[in-house]
Amino acid sequence: MRKMHEHYYTDKPKSKTKYGVIETTLRGKSFKFLTASGVFSYKKIDRGTAILAEKMIIDDDARVLDLGCGYGVLGIVAARAGRNVKPVLTEINSRAAMLAEENLTMNNIVAEVRKGSFYDPVARERFDTILCNLPMSAGLETAYKIIKGAYEHLNNEGSLQVVVRRGSKRIEKKMLDVYDNVVILARKGGYRVFISYRK
After folding, report:
1. Partner residues linked to 191 by β-bridges
2. Alpha-carbon gap, residue 133 to 40, rounded angstroms
3. What is the DSSP string of 30-61?
4. Among 82, 97, 176, 188, which one has the highest count of C-beta atoms within 10 angstroms of its own C-beta?
5. Quick check: helix, strand or coil at residue 175?
6. In what order do the strands lie in the sheet with 63-67?
7. How far is CA 194 from its chain centroid?
8. Residue pLDDT, tens place only, 101-117
């Protein structure tokens, strides 16, 4: 597990790049994603990501942050989930960020990919919705940092929406502690999708 953690969350993966394309349907719409080795879940869309993509709540005109976007699934699906949705996608992995850029073009989505760690690429910015497939393999403290950091980057009544499998009880408790509210949007295959609102 330690080796995998270093592999996916490094700035520049050293593994040889092997490309692939995933075609899928989410929220009743067709998408195509260019993927590559050295990024998270490159052979198929991660089940947790797919569940969050299907269940996330995206309002019209929302400014959306896809934090740790990988090759861009959540941000791209969010862009089509409402009218005039404005996504920003962030990612520390250079290879994943490049793929996300390609996938915006491939799916005719107007959005912005920014490279960097945690909330560094969106310092002093606020969003209506923050989406994240929490990287539990990076450790619980990393997940907690994402949950706590989201509060300062949400507009009033804005939401943090996350998916998690391992450690779901602790994540639920942390979101309740930080936001004083948490709701389970979905339960499926051991995954939980949680939403908390900044009040």
Report:
1. 188
2. 11
3. EEEEEEETTSTT-SS--HHHHHHHHH----TT
4. 97
5. helix
6. 112-115, 86-91, 63-67, 127-133, 154-164, 191-197, 183-188
7. 13
8. 999 999 999 999 999 99
